[in-house]
C-alpha cells in the first residue's frame, strides 16, 4: 500500500504536466464583456492566454481547452491597467521624501487588487540611485515596474535637493537611461521652485541623447507661462502632469481664473501632441478645474494616480476611484478604459502592453461595474455625485492569476512568488 501511495505522489506532477501540455490555453477568461480600445472590441467575448501571452479573442472558446477557466460572466474584461504615475521607490531611509523612503510604496501591495499590472514610477530615482531602485524594487516585484528617471541625480529626495542645478546632469542621466532602457521610459522634472527653464532644458537634452524618450513635467512652482511650456518648450509626445491641479504655489492652471474658462492654448497643445496626464495625487486635482475643462470638451489623454503614502487614503484612493470620478464627470466608459490601457502604453512606447491582440503580454483585468449613488471628492473637499464604481474581480499578469477577489478562477492555482 505504501509503495502505491509513493508512486501516486510521484505521478501526480507528471499527470498535471501532461494535462497542461494537452491544453490549447493556460487560461480562458469566459463570457465577459471585452473592451479593448486598440482593437475596437466592445462586446461579449472569450479570451485565451497561453505561455504568458494573449493567444485568442473569440466569441466562444471551448473551456475544455484550458488548464484554468475564469468565469467573467456579468463583468467587464479589459487589458491590464497601466498606472502611469506612481512612486514605488520604497525604502527605509528617513527624510528622503520619495527616494528609498517610507513615503513611497512597495508596488505589489497596491496594484493587483486594483487591476493594475504595470506601474510607471515617475522620477523617484535619479541616475545615482536608479541601480538601487532596480535591485531593491523592480527586480523583486511581481508587478511590472517601469520608470521615468529624474533629471536630478539624487532623484526625489525632497527639500533643498530639488533645487540643486548642479545635480542636474543631462549626460549622466542619458547614460543611465540608455543602460536601463528595458526599464526606463522617460525623463522627469519636478518641484523646481525658481523662474528659469534650466531643469526642463536639461531634461530635454537628456531625452535627446537617450533616443528621444518622453519628458514628463511637473511644473511645480516655477511661476512660468504654461502656454510657453506646452507650445514652445515641450515636444510632441512629452507629458504635462497634474493637468487639473494648479492655481497655487506658482503653478498656472489650465483654467483662466478671471473667466473661469479653459485657456484656448490647452486644446491646441493637445492637438500638436502634448500629452495631458491626470496625476491626481494628494493635492493635484481639483474639480474647479476639471469641470469647466471637460465642459469645454477637453479630456485627459492618460488617467493616473500619483500614488504615494500621502495620496492613497485621501481623495485619490486608487486608480479605480479616479476612473469612477471621470465617469461621473461625463467621460465615456471606453475613453476611460483607453486612458488607463492603450494610451499610456503608446505614450511610454511599450506597445506590447495595453491591448488584447494575439501575441500581446498576457495582462488582463476583470472588473465589476457597480451602479448606485456614489460620491467623489477632491483635496479641497468639493464633492460630485456619480452612479458608477469600479471594483476589481480578477487580475491576470503575464498569463497567471495574480489576484482573485471572489474565486472566479477554477481551479484556484497559486501565483508564483518569484518572477
Report what the structure shows:
The protein is an alpha/beta fold and 419 residues long. The protein has ten helices and 16 strands. The longest helix is centred in the N-terminal third of the chain and has 21 residues, at 2-22. It has a domain at 79-347: Alpha-Beta Barrel (TIM Barrel), CATH 3.20.20.140. It is globular. Strand 1 (25-36) and strand 2 form a beta hairpin. The strands form two sheets. Strands 1, 2, 3, 4, 5, 13, 14, 15 and 16 form a nine-stranded mixed sheet that branches. The chain has a seven-stranded parallel sheet with strand order 6-7-8-9-10-11-12.
Strand content: 25-35%
Which second-level CATH architecture of the domain at 79-347 applies? Alpha-Beta Barrel
So what's the CATH class of the domain at 79-347? Alpha Beta
Question: Considering the protein shown, what is the CATH homologous superfamily of the domain at 79-347?
Answer: Metal-dependent hydrolases
- Rg calculated over all Cα atoms: 22 Å
CATH topology of the domain at 79-347: TIM Barrel
Provide the succession of SSEs: HEEEEEEEHEHEHEHEHEHHHHEEEE
Please estimate the helix content: 10-25%
Q: Structural class of the secondary structure composition?
A: alpha/beta
Q: Low-confidence parts, pLDDT < 50 over ≥5 residues?
A: 1-20
How many strands, what sense, and barrel or not for the largest sheet?
A: 9 strands, mixed
What distance separates the N and C termini? 39 Å
**How many helices?**
10
Amino acid at each position: 500500500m505504501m509503495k502505491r501511495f509513493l508512486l501516486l505522489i510521484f505521478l501526480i506532477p507528471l499527470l498535471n504536466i501532461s494535462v497542461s501540455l494537452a491544453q490549447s490555453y493556460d487560461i480562458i477568461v469566459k463570457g465577459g464583456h471585452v473592451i479593448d480600445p486598440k482593437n475596437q472590441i466592445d462586446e461579449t467575448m472569450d479570451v485565451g492566454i497561453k505561455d504568458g501571452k494573449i493567444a485568442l479573442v473569440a466569441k466562444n472558446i471551448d473551456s475544455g481547452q484550458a488548464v484554468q477557466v475564469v468565469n467573467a460572466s456579468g463583468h467587464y474584461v479589459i487589458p491590464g491597467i497601466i498606472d502611469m504615475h506612481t512612486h514605488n521607490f520604497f525604502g527605509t531611509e528617513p527624510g528622503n521624501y520619495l527616494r528609498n523612503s517610507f513615503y513611497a510604496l512597495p508596488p505589489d501591495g497596491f496594484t493587483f487588487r486594483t487591476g493594475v499590472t504595470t506601474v510607471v514610477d515617475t522620477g523617484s530615482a535619479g541616475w545615482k540611485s536608479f541601480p538601487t531602485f532596480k535591485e531593491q524594487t523592480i527586480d523583486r516585484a511581481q508587478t511590472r515596474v517601469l520608470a521615468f528617471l529624474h533629471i536630478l541625480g539624487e532623484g526625489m529626495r525632497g527639500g533643498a535637493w530639488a533645487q540643486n542645478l548642479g545635480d542636474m546632469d543631462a549626460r549622466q542621466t542619458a547614460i543611465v537611461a540608455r543602460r536601463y532602457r528595458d526599464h526606463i521610459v522617460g525623463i522627469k522634472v519636478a518641484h523646481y521652485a525658481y523662474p528659469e527653464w534650466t531643469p526642463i532644458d536639461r531634461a530635454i537634452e537628456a531625452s535627446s541623447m537617450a533616443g528621444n524618450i518622453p519628458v514628463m513635467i511637473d511644473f511645480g512652482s516655477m511661476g512660468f507661462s504654461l502656454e510657453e511650456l506646452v507650445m514652445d518648450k515641450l515636444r510632441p509626445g512629452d507629458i504635462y502632469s497634474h493637468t487639473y491641479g494648479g492655481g497655487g504655489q506658482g503653478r498656472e492652471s489650465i483654467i483662466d481664473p478671471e473667466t473661469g474658462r479653459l485657456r484656448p492654448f490647452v486644446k491646441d497643445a493637445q492637438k500638436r501632441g502634448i500629452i495631458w496626464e491626470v496625476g491626481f495625487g494628494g493635492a493635484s486635482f481639483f474639480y474647479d478645474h476639471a469641470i469647466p475643462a471637460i465642459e469645454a470638451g477637453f479630456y485627459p489623454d492618460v488617467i493616473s494616480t500619483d500614488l504615494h503614502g500621502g495620496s492613497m487614503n485621501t481623495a485619490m484612493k486608487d486608480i479605480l476611484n479616479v476612473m469612477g470620478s471621470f465617469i461621473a464627470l461625463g467621460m465615456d466608459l471606453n475613453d476611460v478604459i483607453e486612458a488607463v490601457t492603450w494610451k499610456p502604453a503608446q505614450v511610454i512606447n511599450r506597445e506590447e502592453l495595453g491591448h488584447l491582440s494575439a501575441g500581446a503580454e498576457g495582462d488582463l483585468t476583470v472588473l465589476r461595474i457597480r451602479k448606485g449613488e456614489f460620491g467623489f471628492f477632491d483635496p479641497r473637499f468639493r464633492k460630485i455625485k456619480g452612479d458608477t464604481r469600479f471594483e476589481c474581480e480578477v487580475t491576470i499578469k503575464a498569463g497567471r492569476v495574480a489576484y482573485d477577489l471572489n474565486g472566479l478562477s477554477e481551479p484556484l492555482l497559486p501565483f508564483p512568488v518569484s518572477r
